[in-house]
Specification:
Length: 158
């Protein structure tokens, strides 16, 4: 099990690097949309916001499968997985994310659903603007908590 924990910690760190790239693409796309008035850049912003949450969800799924040995099922599994990550499992692991981060991420989870089910030209610019504006704070919180969890895994695996 210890080697699996160390590999999971490394995977979390790798995914965080990718999330930094995605956040950079969100910022660049938003800037171009504002400068050019070209709403096609908003499609890129929305897709990258979707990718941002998708990357976090991949991490959460790996943790659920590797550590918790259970992944939520059913219609609301995305929401249940997020809640699972904010819950400490005694004698197994601490909470992966805080309740505050859960609240932040729940907005991105909900937006992920919108991106998958709405035509791009129907995205609400005000909603995009809020998600873009909040992204640096959300990423900072998520990064700190996931790095702390990766360190926990590293220690458990050593």
């Amino acid at each position: 099990m210890s080697e699996r924990l160390v590999r999971l910690a490394a995977r979390i760190r790798d995914e965080l690097t990718e999330l930094d790239r995605v956040a950079g693409r969100v910022a660049e796309g938003w800037g171009r949309a504002l400068r050019n008035g070209d709403d096609y850049y908003l499609d890129s912003v929305a897709l990258n916001l979707h990718g941002f949450y998708g990357g976090l969800e991949r991490i959460f799924e790996l943790i659920a499968a590797t550590i918790d040995n259970t992944k939520p099922k059913g219609e609301n599994w995305h929401q249940a997985l997020l809640q699972q990550m904010a819950t400490e499992i005694p004698d197994l692991r601490p909470a992966v994310i805080s309740q505050k981060t859960l609240q932040f991420l729940d907005e991105y989870r909900g937006f992920r659903h919108v991106v998958r089910n709405v035509y791009a030209y129907n995205f609400e610019t005000a909603k995009l603007q809020k998600l873009v504006a909040d992204l640096p704070v959300v990423l900072a919180h998520g990064r700190a908590e996931l790095l702390a969890f990766a360190e926990f895994l590293q220690q458990q695996g050593s």
